[in-house]
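ping. complex inputs:
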Amino acid sequence: MTDGVVRYATPKLGGYVVLTALGLLASLIFARPELAAVSAPFAVVLAIGLAVSRRPDVRVYVDVDRDRLLEDEEVVLEIELDARDSAPRLELLVEVPSGLELVSGANPVALRLGFGEERRLELRFRCTHWGAPRLGDLHLRAGDAAGLLVWEETLERGSVLRVYPRPEELRQLVGPRETQLFTGNRVSRAKGEGLEFADLRQFVPGDRIRRINWRASARRGELWVNEFHAERNADVILFLDSFVDARRSDRGTLDEAVRAAATLTERYLLEKDRVGLVNFGGVLNWLRPGTGLVQRYRIVEALLNTEITLSYAWKEIDVLPRGTLPPKALVLALTPLLDDRAIGALLDLRARGFDLVIVEVSPLPYAETPPGELGELAFRLWKLRRDGRRLQYERAGAPVVEWREGEPLTSVLEGVNASRRHARARA
Amino acid sequence: MAVTLYGTFAADRLALLVLALGLTGAALLTYALATVNAGSIVSALVGVAASWSLSAWTRGTGAPGGTVLAAVGIFVAAELAYWSLEQASVPDEGELVARRAAGLALRGFGALFLVACVLAALGLRPGGGLILETVGVAAAVGLLAIVLVLARAVYEAER
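pong. complex structure:
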């Protein structure tokens, strides 16, 4: 134990003082010497206990076996205790942050350390929720042999863990309407170097011989060449609405949205697309589109720090710096459609011509019908208003797909693709 | 409770008052342990001690029979009560339980000899004879020793 130690008397010390004093006083008042004898053991424990009591000297070393892990994975916290002096009773409490639960090991624990004794404790925690919890902060309380005095200290030896959301399995992604200039895995509508056949055209000087379609050329009596679709990448902006969160104990719409955003980031980056993030909420965060593993970690780190910050400030999409929303980008919004600022910003994006897809993280499972007839009526009106909003987006050309609790994300994205195919067919 | 009952049966008069005081002390002790209230432990022990003192007073001057036993009983009850309170917040490891039980047994023995010596120094002769009282307390300490052996066996089994 080091500086910052607080020493205080236990209730036992106070109790023994009172019992000794009362015994001796009663002995004098009632002239009964045997009462002094009854209080003698308490007096002796006090005298000897306080005389031999001294501050324990225990060195504590804390370590976690890893600091980056996925949800549902386990982390081991190792605590090494090195007693430079004996500690008759040492209580140890590890602060368990939310998002972690103890799997094995005792916490809190009271143990004894002999002179020069070393002990190693292992606590195994399971990460139940994504985030950046701090693990390893300890509270130590050492008592003397008689239990009369206690030394208490808080050791901030914790390290911040990065618990990443566990990515979901996705069969297909939402394809953007427009591709960008850089090479990627998406078949562009533009013609160029690629694998997907696009069209035939007459040979012009400069065309490669291997592009000549010999069958078509033989049929037409002149040289014709194959044209291909270019393979390009796309810009994808994940728009995370963090104004409001519909929540029920350990689950909420923001949790689902962050998990989905992490999954989508990973998958779009694997497709060589550039992915950016707009965290539109009480605190505005953004990341310009980028590619590669570094961008993936940047986005996931930004997602880990996502939280609901209460704000009444009206925010519009204009507050975002230029370059955050590149032209022709696919904007994939993850929102519970509860806050008017986010709803307005999304309509604004669509009006500016962005390819907008809205995944509505449904707040309905987290909402309870208010009691009474009026409550039921109000709830129905609220649901109707939400339907109206969805219609408003769809009229503006932005498909809205409802994502209910427990439904896999992949089926939601398939719903988006179907909706977009249907819209194209109608057009 | 044993101290209270002994005091009640040994009292020459006011036995009901002795019993009432002792039972109040026992009830307070139960309340203190159930609600983890350290403040009530002192009141409870004072109640039991007052019950014993009243019983002793009814038996005239000098140390009455069972004084050593009563003193050690009250002391061990206090030690066990504060130990129980500690367990309510953070339970001890098996090894620590065994060591503390051994320590408590030693303190019980120490209290026995201390009280006997104090009474002798004060020139009081506790009724029933010191040897008989020592045998009674040794039985109680023996019980604690059995607890210690059992706790150690549990600890070894856990290891």
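The mean pLDDT of chain A is 86.
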